[in-house]
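Recall that a protein's primary structure is simply its ordered list of amino acids. Everything else, from secondary elements to tertiary packing, is in principle encoded there. The following example makes that idea concrete.
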Amino acid sequence: MSITPIITFKAGICDLDTNVTPPKVLPKPTPGFIYLWEEDDLIRFCWRPRSASSSQPELELIMVPCDGTFAPYERSRPDATSKPPTNGRIYVLKFRSSSQRHLFWLQSKSQHAQGDPSWFSPRDLKWGKIVDELLQGQRVDVSGELANTSENPGGPGDDNDETMEDAEGASGDAERHQGGSGGAGVDATGGDIREEGEASREGGADGGRAAPAPSDDAAVAVQNFLRSLQGSGAMDAPNEAASQFATLPDLLPSSSTIPVIESADVAFVNTLLSYIPLTLLLLAQEVDDVSSVEPTPETASAAMEALTLEQKKEILIKVLRSPQFSQSLSSLTLALRDGGLPSISDALGIEIENGGFVRRSGQPVGGGQAIEAFLNGIRAAVAKKKEGSDGKMNIN
């Protein structure tokens, strides 16, 4: 599949060593690119090695508007004269709906006049600003923004790659905000950022967002719901109460869900498969032309019967491990926290205490209380369904 990135710039990925105190950011030496593109009105945040094509990212995240932020990392320091937390420039991608973090180091050479690798130039900050605005669902004139940024504000004139040693003090609990120091790099290759993404920036001159592709009714409904939350201000940054209850990704890690699938019986597996798109079942059978198969209940039933129990479990496990499943859980967490509990529970047929609204108020329950109320509603629904029978599912 051919894609057109909105913006592309040189960056590497980092690991976080939590076995030392304070934790240490470990930049990986692989030369790479961060790039963003759009499909179905949703931004895809991607990273790939420079040896791979844009259609083969190692990391691809479907970003819900206003859920993610992208900013320079700067650990809190006791005074302005103390040593920066890194010897280079690191950006952190984090999420309001989960505790997930991704760290990246800029691989383009520092533009500081004395070669300070931890100095964010206007160019470096502009890259981050564009990415963050795109993650908030804003329209961005990418080519115009980059044209107004000096490529060489007093620093080295080339765009060779930066180098960086391991960055100490990158604690997962440390304060991160936009500032003057951050992450950095390891040896790489490549020239100016214009070697990639130029066509995409030219194509994004009308606002930096690609034309939306056709989508089905379900996708449109979800997108309209998210946009309505954003437009009403309901998707602003969560307050302190929102973080007092676990998120859905925290409650449903693959380490907990996969063993359930591995030990499940045929009836339970078939029930779960009934919620899986027919396309996945057909692909497991190596059907040549999936698009020619009519998605009817009879077709789905025949597809399931043609699979062995092990094949069915393998499909479910792949779904649980997929980034799409993780992103869907994060999206649902965000929607519940930000006022969507009444409409979501009603659509799913789940009875929620007081309909999901605050007592004696027309305001929906939000924050961590919404997540807890949603889970309590599911638990009650399962208990009601299993009442009077020998239920096989532990709902506690």
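Residues 323-348 form the longest helix (26 residues). The mean pLDDT is 73.
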